[in-house]
Amino acid sequence: MLGIIVGVASVVSMVAFASGAQREVARQIQTLGANVLMIAPEWIQATGISDGQYELAVLNELDAKALVEIVPEIALAAPSVRDDLQVINNKNSVWVTVNGTTSTYFSVREWPLQSGRHFSSQELSGAAKVALLGRDTAQSLFGDENPLGKTIRILKAPFEVIGVLAKKGTAGSGRAQDEVVFVPISTAKRRLFGSSNVTDRGAVDYILVKATSTRAVRDVNQAVSDLLRQRHRLRSDQEDDFRVVNPAATMEAQNAAKKTIGWLLAGIASVSLIVGGISIMNIMLVSVAERTREIGLRIAIGARPMDVQYQFLMESILLCFIGGLIGLLIGGGLAIVVSNLAGWPVYLSPLSMIGSIGLATVVGMVFGYIPARYASRLDPVAALKFE
After folding, report:
1. How far apart (Å, rounded) are the C-alpha atoms in residues 21 and 349?
2. pTM for this one?
């Protein structure tokens, strides 16, 4: 049974890791929001400077406005600037990402509020010193205290907390999305860290756009490229000075690779099942030889060959079934222990557990057939004389 136990334990643990990774990626994709594309400026060769010098191209708020107005497949667009800054509340302080954006950002990301409200149009246009806190940031700064209406300081400037966002969890890159503070984009530029380009006050670090549907994502990708090339006056022989990233597609590709590797490892581990099956076949053949007189006696008093075949076949299946159960317990326990120690996501699906037991049973049936068939064909007279 040892080969069956090792095989089933290996398959169960590998499938648990593969399924866990798949579910984690699905969760991360869901936190991004549906049908979201990110547009970011690209590094280009600097003009008027010797070869080998590069500068970051300019992407600005007018680009975001044009995308919504001209591309019908784009429902929303949110320009943003960001930087890592220290945020202080009395004696508590944290270094987090401070993101200057518009209220549209939260609709694009499908990021609801836990409490409070979003930025008003007056606060966005007037560079008001108001802030929305990510769940973890609110916990770090205020603990169990209600942060609404309280004051925090960013670069010595006071900001009123007007809302706390619902929990988002980690992103695909492993970054904690809830360790963040959002302020109006006008406030970020005028009072905190300025625009992303010193010569263009409208420059932004990136733009998030939301397509009207999943089917429209591909069309949006091409339409964004065409429009921005036109707006940035790029010649046909020039490369894009921006990049359009589909985070969901990137993570799905990573997930497919992880899934393939997981199933490959499970396939390799299943070789142990074959080895275990061969071992069981050999042991059952030895058992037939040791019980030859018993078989002859059973046939002599009326047992049919089919009865003898069923007897040994059921013994083989039972051995593999019990080995499969033990392997399932060991494999599931191993997956949980490794998950707790290494922090890897695991998921023990009922289908994989039932499938592993079923696979072990099939191995017993396949490799137990030859010994059972051999036992059923023994001559009862010769079997009774066997020493």
Report:
1. 13
2. 0.64
